[in-house]
Amino acid sequence: MAEMSDSNLEKPTIIQQAMASCCGAIITSLLVSPLDVIKTRLQAQSNPFPKGKCFVYSSGLMDHICVCENGNSKAWYKKPGNFKGTLDAFVKIIRIEGIKSLWSGLPPTLIMALPNAIIYFTLYDQLREALKYRLKKGDEYIPVLAGSLSRFSSLTVVSPLELIRTRMQHRKLSYKQLYLCVSTQVAADGWFSLWRGWSSTVLRDIPFSAMYWYNYERFKKMMCKQVGAHEPTFLIAFTSGAASGSIAAVITQPFDVVKTHRQTALWESETLEIPQRDSPSTWAVMRKVVASNGITGLFAGIIPRLCKVAPACAIMISTYEYGKSFFSHLNEKMNQRP
Predict the structure, then answer these.
(1) Confidence (pTM)
(2) What angle do CA 143, 144, 150 make, to 5 degrees?
(3) Position with higher pLDDT, 212 vs 271
(4) How far is CA 64 from CA 102, 146, 198, 313, in A?
């Protein structure tokens, strides 16, 4: 009993887990978001975004809908650039616009992405430990349940805040105007209107999280066993995160295509003031995509998504595990003090 008590004391506290996930989220977004900035600039160069057009911007932690401003706007995605490819865009943006331009659009999205990551990772660890204690045995599918529940919770908390952020960015509203806008919408359509677009995100992210955590825990355990380690090294966590993230991304790609279609259509109907009809179901959107582009249409954009998801998953989980390990050793040293 004393050994168990000591072991629990050495584990990171919930505050320490939140701090580790926050640090991991900041590092991930700083390293991954430049890839999406370059992708968006290349898209805008080949097919300029008209006013009211929506596109998906990824901070490396979550996807955000961005609404294009008017044609005379000096928005970062409208800056001219004669790019010949990804590497050329990377070099020219740094040389002509300065290195800070690689993180264009990141600050406002971090306001949503950081709480999302903190809730998700901290809750996953808390649920996994609680389920292990309750079930005692047969823990093979605990990561699936803990991952699904933690993702469901983080999406449910952040989804209305992200909708409000997008509306504020699009309409350039003051906080007073934003309050009036939201209260009018709630009065007209009810509280559930704040979760518009939530269902399509859930259909993609919950299967992704279930597969990601199941494979991550298996790969981590297998690699730790091979090298004789009691806890994952940075490299083990990085490799396991990249592999499990890639597998989950490929399998859930059709739901990512559907999510992008539904959410951009939803916001474009609002920004262009097109009367909204009933939103088509997930299966209706899938049938439409298959009818237009064949079955391969459901896997459109898989390579760019893998190039973003694999490093994001690897960096986030390895920095998070490193942070937890740091706090565990810190707690151990504190406990050993007389």
Answers:
(1) 0.85
(2) 80
(3) 212
(4) 17, 25, 12, 17
